[in-house]
Each structure stands twice: as C-alpha cells, then as structure tokens.
Protein: Poly(A) polymerase I
Organism: Azonexus hydrophilus
Amino acid sequence: MIRKLISRVFRGNKNKGNRHEPAVIPVSSHGITRDRLSSGSRRTCETLQAEGFKAYVVGGAVRDLLIGADPKDFDVATNATPEEVRRCFRRSRIIGRRFQIVHVMMGQEVIEVTTFRGTLDETTKKDEHGRVLHDNVFGSQAEDAARRDFTANALYYDPTTETVIDYHHGVGDLKARTLRMIGEPRARYREDPVRMLRAVRLAAKLGLSIDPEAKKPIREMAELLENVPAARLFDEMLKLLTSGHSVKCITQLRDEGLHHGLLPLLDVILEQPLGEKFVMLALASTDERVRRGKGTSPGFLFATLLWHEVLAHWDKMKAKGEAKIPALFQAMDTVLDVQGEKLAITRRIAGDIKDIWALQPRFEQRAGKRPYALLEQPRFRAGYDFLLLRAQAGEIDMELVEWWTRFQNAEGDKRAEMLLPEAAGDKKKRRRRKKPANATPQASDA
Ligand code: ATP
Ligand code: MG
C-alpha cells in the first residue's frame, strides 16, 4: 500500500520537479530511526524546528545511512537565514562571504547549517565556459533539492517524523545502486566541472554505478577541469585520495580519460613509470588505513606521490657532482616549487612532505649516536612508514627496514649491540660534509 503510494509519487515526480510534490518516505519503508543521527545534528534540527523553521539532515549523511555506510558528517539544511540560525544557537558563527553558512557547535561536534539555495537564472555570474562563479541566492526546499548534484545527494531526513523527503527519486536510484545526475548532466558539468570528479569518487566509494547519461559526457567535457581553480581541485583530489578507495578512484579516472594534462596531480601519479608501483602501494596502504579508521596525513600522501620525481632530480644533481645531502635538498625544492604550485599544496603540507623526505638518507646511518637521534625525531614514525613503502616497492633493501624495526623495539643493551661499526671512510666523509655550500640544518646534522 505504502509502496504503491510512493511509486505513484515517484512517477509524477521523475522529471525536473521543482514544483512537484516530493515523495515522503516513512520509517517503516526506509528503516532509518532518528537515533542513527549524531546527537548534534538531531538537536540542531529540533531547535530550529521549535523556533518554527524547517530543518533537515541532508546530503551525504542521509545517502550513507540509506546504503548502510557510516556517515562522515551530518549537515543540516534549513529555511532559516544564516542570521536567524545564528540567533538560535549560542555557540555558533557565520562563515563564508558569498554563500554564508553557519557552524553550530554542539559539544565536540560542529554542524554545518546551510540555508536552502535558490535556482540559478540568467543573472547568475558565470565564467566564459559556463562555470558558476557566484551562487548566493536563497530559495525554497524544492529549489535547494534541484541545485544538488546527484539524486542520492538530494534527500532530506526529518528527525522529528523520521521521514525521508525525496524530490528526485534518490531512494529508488540508491536501491538500484545508481548515481544519477539531477537535471541535464552536460549542463550540470558545465556549471561545475568538479562534479565529474565527485561522480567518480562517490561511485567508487559507495559501490554505485554512474548512470550512462551522466557517465558519457565526462570524457568529452574533461577539459573543463582546466578552468577550475587549483585550490578547489586540490581539495577534491585530497578527498578522493583519502576516501578509502583511492586505487579504485584513480583507476576509474584513468578509464574516464580524466588525466593527461587535466589534473596535474593525476599526471604525477599516472605518468611516472618507475614510480607507479610505489604510488599504487602507497595509495593501497592509505586506503587500508582509512578503512581501519586510522588517520592519514596529506603530507605523507603527497610525499609518496612526488617521491620518484625527487629521486630523478636527486640523481641529476648527484651526476652534476653535488654532494649527496645538498643534492637531495635541492631536488626537494625543485619538485616542490614546480608541483607545489600546480597542485596548490599549502605551505604547511609542503613542510610535512620535506620532513619525511629529509629523513630518508638518515635511515642509512646505523653507526654511532645517529640512529638514537633519529628515533627521537618527531617525524620518525612517518619516515619509517615511508621507508617501508620504498622497500616494498623494491627501491631499497628490505633488510634496512627490518633492522629499524628491530632497533626500535630492542631494549637498551640489545640496541647498542645492533649498531654497525663506524666505517673509517664514513668519518672522513662526515668531516668533509661539515661545510657544504648551502647547508640547511637537517643537511649538516645528517
Ligand atoms: P562526502 O561523503 O564526501 O561528504 P557529500 O555528498 O556529503 O560526500 P559534501 O561535499 O559534503 O559531499 O557535500 C554535501 C552535499 O552538498 C552533497 O551531498 C550535495 O547534495 C551537495 N553538493 C556538494 N557539492 C556539490 C556540487 N559540486 N554541486 C551540487 N551539489 C553539491
Ligand atoms: Mg558530506
């Protein structure tokens, strides 16, 4: 009976649908009870509703709950303006300039509360390729739904009634495990080319297939990504790489033709024959960490993605007669200057990357006091994990990693016994290295 009702609403609602009534799906059908929400998002909705506003949990969280995945965060959508939202919560602040959203602090949680967005029209500012630049009008809930990218992302959950409000057949599409674009895919990619990357990432992460209508244009429209600001691409690529499904995403991006000069980061990943094994291992290990709920650091990730570039430059510098450590530091700077800019790597992440790279030659030193000093380095663990990946990829001998594994875990005396004898040549080399031309602190103590 309910099913019949729902499918009738769906049928009448399949097309564009701003003006159509949405399907209101009861808990008996979708099975998501309000206790599945974070307490912060639930309380945020309840407070706004008590003040007479509409408020729903929206987007990725509803989608993830419906397919049995763990939502990353719970966003709220409302018809209250940012100013009105702010007045409802003592601990809240408005952020953003163009399209303002409100961060509501609930205990440890920060809930992102967004006012329903309105329809784009002729007055919407776009660049010469049709990419939407400003998008700051408020609208109705139906308009808000139509502005979202995929049907599965346009679902609203009301914690009070435990219903899912579905304007675009999202629940049905999710059941069919399909990622379907709302509206005409080409037009939606033109408005925002990043949606192509989102399609690939969400499909890989959620095990959905991209509806052919939405999939077909990706290949032809890929070059529109060139006009997207680097910082936005970086954010999206970082999401993709830390989704827990990076290997699948990267493989699919390659299949969709979304590489070769379009995304500098993908060029780096896919176009280095020597580094491919290393990069794929690194991505697989990141995926594994994400799935086990362990943290990942962008610094570590990018250090792996760019390592073989560093190796190539390092070899060049050494061939020119530069000493080993200064050559490494010059290679690091060259790679970060070139790639860092293209990829919009932030300064802080660049610092992390350098730390990890700079530690690598220090693992080769297994005599005297130096191994002890290395253990005390705050970045030791990341450096060691990096070393392990290098060994797994066949770049260096596994014996070195095994030595460090044992050395870390050995007790005092046992540790001392492990040290290698200081080679005579080693000392001479070290004395010579005391005054390299452009020594950095790490270089001279290495
Ligand atoms: P994730 O699991 O990565 O958080 P998500 O779908 O929640 O996936 P967010 O970036 O958190 O992604 O976006 C929240 C919601 O905002 C989406 O579910 C979607 O409804 C809408 N949205 C995000 N990006 C876009 C976009 N580029 N175009 C249209 N709607 C978007
Ligand atoms: Mg989200």
Remarks:
- The domain at 298-422 is CATH 1.10.3090.10 (cca-adding enzyme, domain 2).
- Residues 59-60, 72, 75, 148-149, 153-154, 192, 194-195, 198, 239 surround adenosine-5'-triphosphate (ligand 1) (CB under 6 Å).
